[in-house]
Each structure stands twice: as C-alpha cells, then as structure tokens.
TrEMBL record:
This is Uncharacterized protein. The chain crosses the membrane at residues 43-63. Keywords: Membrane, Transmembrane, Transmembrane helix. The keyword Transmembrane applies.
Length: 82
C-alpha cells in the first residue's frame, strides 16, 4: 500500500509541477503536463496544477502514515517506539 501511495504521490506532484512550469514559462514544459493538453481545464490550468501539487503532498503524507501503520500493526515491539 505504501508503494502505491508513493507512486500516486509522484504522479500527482510531477503533473502539478509540470503544469505550473508549463503555464509560468509560456509552454516550454508541454511534454510534462497532462493538464495543459485537456480542454476541460482551459483557463483553470494553474488552479488545477496547484490542486494536483496539494493532492500529491497529501498522498505523500498518506504513504508515510501507511508505512508507519504497517510497522505499528505488526506486533513488533521495536516498531512501537516513538
């Protein structure tokens, strides 16, 4: 589960940062950004990119929590140290 959340974090962050770079540099990073290619987000690319970055950070926090939760639920006494 941690690996899936980590991968999702990477995808969301890369698309969000790519979208922001695409908008702020005038289209130089067009290969990175899926948001710029979709007509549904026309005019809202920066907002959608910021939302993707925030969602990516949330997924990163969830991946970290999932990793710690797996250690705590394993019953290992060393994993319960804080």
């Amino acid at each position: 589960m941690k690996t899936f959340f980590g991968f999702l974090c990477f995808v969301l962050l890369s698309q969000g940062v790519g979208g922001l770079l695409h908008e702020l540099t005038g289209g130089r990073f067009s290969i990175w950004s899926l948001v710029a290619r979709l007509d549904a987000f026309d005019g809202y690319e920066i907002y959608v990119s910021v939302i993707l970055v925030v969602a990516g950070l949330a997924m990163g926090a969830a991946a970290d929590a999932a990793g710690r939760g797996a250690v705590l639920s394993s019953g290992d006494q060393e994993g319960k140290r804080r």
